[in-house]
Write a structure and sequence with these properties.
Blueprint: H1 2-61, H2 67-75, H3 79-89, H4 92-115, H5 123-150
């Protein structure tokens, strides 16, 4: 009879500790998922903001501009660091769309530097701006899908 009591007590203790660990593990996993989703949303917002502000800076300078002036306008809004941050936090589909948007913005910068391109209804401007604009629209769609999947 003494062994039965001891075995019952030990079994109850093991079962109690095991269930507590299981519940705690599930809670920690859920909290990690919530933190990751929040980190992704913040990275998405910072990257979209940097894209928009950098494009605006390039548009205001889109006239014959010196190399240093153009580089300064391009770097002023931290586009590259926010791009790298996004690559660390986002799923592959978002990273691919972010790369396309970044490449489009660089194409605008390079066209301004090479040809003195100015924003406007010209065919030259449309040739670089339309692909960038399409890439940013696709990026927003992919980001939205990613956020909705997390909720």
């Amino acid at each position: 009879m003494e062994w039965l009591t001891l075995v019952g007590t030990l079994s109850g203790g093991v079962l109690g500790v095991g269930s507590t660990l299981l519940v705690e593990s599930a809670r920690a996993r859920r909290e990690r998922g919530i933190r990751l989703a929040q980190t992704q949303r913040e990275a998405y917002l910072r990257y979209l903001t940097a894209l928009t502000e950098t494009e605006a800076a390039l548009l205001t300078i889109s006239q014959p501009a010196s190399g240093p002036e153009l580089i300064s306008a391009y770097r002023a809004h931290q586009i590259l660091p926010t791009y790298y941050e996004l690559l660390l936090a986002a799923p592959p589909a978002v990273c691919e769309a972010a790369r396309d948007a970044y490449s489009g913005l660089r194409a605008i910068r390079d066209a301004i530097a090479a040809t003195g391109l100015t924003a406007g209804p010209s065919d030259e401007w449309q040739a670089v701006h339309v692909p960038y604009d399409s890439a940013v629209r696709e990026l927003r769609i992919v980001m939205r899908k990613s956020v909705l999947e997390d909720t």
